[in-house]
Amino acid sequence: MSSFAQAGAVQAANDEDTLETQEWLEALAAVLDREGPQRAHYLLERLIDEARRSGAHIPFSPNTAYVNTIPPGLEPAHPGNLELESRIRSYVRWNAMAMVVKANKHNPPDGGDLGGHIASFASLATMIGCGQNHFWHAEDENHGGDLVYFQGHTSPGMYGRAYLEGRLTEEQLNHFRQEVDGKGLSSYPHPKLMPDFWQFPTVSMGLGPLMAIYQARFLKYLHARGIADTSKRKVWVFCGDGEMDEPESLGAIALAAREKLDNLIFVINCNLQRLDGPVRGNGKIIQELEGDFRGSGWNVIKLIWGGYWDPLLAHDKEGILRQIMEETVDGEYQAYKANDGKFVREHFFGKHPKLLEAVSRMSDEDIWRLNRGGHDPHKVYAAFNAASTHTGQPTVILAKTIKGYGMGHVGQAKNPTHQQKKLELDSIREFRDRFGIPIPDDKLADLPYFKPAEDSPEMKYLHERRAALGGYLPRRRAKADEQLKAPALDAFKAVLEPTAEGREISTTQAFVRILNQVLRDKELGPRVVPILADESRTFGMEGLFRQIGIYAPEGQKYTPVDKDQVMYYKEAADGQLLQEGINEAGAMSSWIAAATSYSSNNRIMIPFFIYYSMFGFQRIGDLAWAAGDMQARGFLLGGTAGRTTLNGEGLQHEDGHSHILASTIPNCVSYDPTFGHELAVIIQHGLKRMVEDQENVYYYLTVMNENYPQPGLTKGDEEGIIKGMYKLKSHGKGKNRVQLMGSGTILREVMAAQELLAADWDVASDIWSVTSFTELRRNGLDAERHNMLHPDEKKPQVAYVTEQLAKTEGPIIASTDYMKLFADQIRPFVPKGREYKVLGTDGFGRSDFRSKLREHFEVDRHFVVVAALRALADEGKVPVAKVAEAIKKYGINPNKANPQYA
């Protein structure tokens, strides 16, 4: 009888005819032996299909038995030196533990611990070591390099290995989580703080899996478009089983299967525990995740049991062991590894007398040695090898491990172990003995790091393995080797000039013209990555469908219904536009992959992601923050921006706060331009900074769908547009003067208010187009800080906004389509003694005509006039009665509800 048939001889409790069952199993074994698994799979599918067609109810199950996917007989031989790899792994474990415990032995005056995590890496060390020794290529002349998203809480292990490799010093390890003085190591993977080391931030949890899927897809995109050869590259993603509860973790797995991302490998570290306790105490997380991934079309490899279980499973003729494995829940499995062999004998094997008999000749130590798959280097290598050679599907490895493996009675598999960062001397001694670290008792209290001599077999092996794979990982490129030039400003001449008499366009239309111009650039055009979340037609960008095509790996297998139209829906295998569907988080992940391509692919790409502004930073704020950490470069465009421009959509569609959110990201440069020429100046300047100068910033620009005449660029205004404000227009000759500031579409209301002030109240005014209140504030804060820290300088720095307004007279009124806080940012830098009043759109949005919305939010021309008159009255330049007169004249209801609460 074949090994398969023997394994299949397991008797199910409800089997009514075991002989017939055995005949079917033997027939299947014969097919497998003679014709292979593909033929066997075909026959089984035909049988199931025929049974269903005949009316048999065969329920679908995406689950397989709770055993390893790869049977022992199909495991390849491990190619490495297992003894040396074990020692290296132990040294890395020790250094990781020592670093965290030493960091938390400090007693700073302000109290508090630095924190850190030992247990997550302890559970993952065997798999990380296997990848480092045998699978993960660094970039060299033969390979573009694999991209590895390391599980965020395992960073101490990466530092412990990098110390052995000579890439980090003992001083750096001694400054774990002490970064302010520039010597330390970041708590988690942070490219911003360690720009030559970490590639991807994987905390907040859930972002790593999501970003990695789109990263793998972007590698395929680059290859399809002939920009880079990515055919040999893999994206490896290490996640925790608890992390998979984050919606982002599983949110895009269907895309990975749909687009056949066989360059993508998830390794889910199923140590059964999260921060507070079990992940699925009453269930089985591996079975649950298998259903999720297999049901979505992934290749699933279960790595549950280590090699010491193989003899027991081989002798499980009646299937009792497998049945108990299946019935035992994760809360029980956790308890087994938190106790000892005697406990396992009583509570696991004791569930059935025949199981107790099967282990009667095994000592408690033998039972305790029964290992989990994620800690068995043979099994791990087999799983990694199968995953890396699989084609046509993404692969997930579900690896069962032990949280805090090797941390002894105080840490292994205990509920608090995730947070454990301190160990007593006895526990440190137990850890040393468990992993055979050659440190004497009299040195243990000092927790010295361990590093063998450079000529030791371990160190030679360590370096040889990485040399064979192209170099060390993780490693990050800070700048691309290539150099590209930004187009000159006059390349956007069509947008810089005034619109013809009677012609009106929106800034969204202006953006599309600018984008088309960049696409025509011979050098930059192929590097442009337009990204949309199913809103192409909203923004008037459907012309790009035919012009550059929508990326679709399999091309277009159908004739689009609008084929007879000029701008028909065109998908192409080498398409340039990424159409992500109704999925802002996925689109943002694609944008991040493109915006960091200079680092991960040595190819500068220029992503433009345009979306409803309300569904931008509000929905993808965590990803936007991660983009800042990753030093992303590219353009985000909030379309239909402002709280009163998207007039028919209502409360949740109208954006009055995205600029506030954008301002929280230090390297996000944000602008709210009113005119096309301002947008052109800003985009050209952004291309210069990000593409030509390779500066680590990204841009957030808001564009509107409201059409109006465009005045065109006046030469000399460029500097003010970039710095954040410039004088647009002066009007009136009255004895009283005010300064009117505005941005976005509300600047147009300010312009109308200027006319009313002159005609109705004999008040002269200057209008300032403020392209960025945020950049003005940052400039002001820079000047303020400089002056505080350089008190002896004879000439203090002056904020740009202060400098500009100091040349003017009269109170200052600022109006925007955003919350008052947006324009209020610059209040500290308004010249002293000047009135500064702010109008904004605090409150929930609602649906109505634009004019009614602006009246409701008190930002229309009439409220600008009233605010200006009130400011003049407060300065004693006009009687207060004038304000009341204006309120009556313009039909304003002074008792109307405050829009902030309405």
What does this 3D model show about the protein?
There is one protein chain. This protein has five domains: 23-60, no CATH class; 82-306 and 371-469, Rossmann fold (3-Layer(aba) Sandwich), CATH 3.40.50; 309-370, no CATH class; 489-541 and 577-702, Thiamin diphosphate (ThDP)-binding fold, Pyr/PP domains (Rossmann fold, 3-Layer(aba) Sandwich), CATH 3.40.50.970; 727-901, Rossmann fold (3-Layer(aba) Sandwich). The chain is elongated and about 105 Å long. It is α/β, with parallel strands linked by helices. The protein contains 37 helices and 18 strands. Helix content is 41%, strand content 10%. Component of the pyruvate dehydrogenase (PDH) complex, that catalyzes the overall conversion of pyruvate to acetyl-CoA and CO(2). Keywords: Magnesium, Metal-binding, Oxidoreductase, Pyruvate, Thiamine pyrophosphate. Residues 724-860 form the Transketolase-like C-terminal domain.
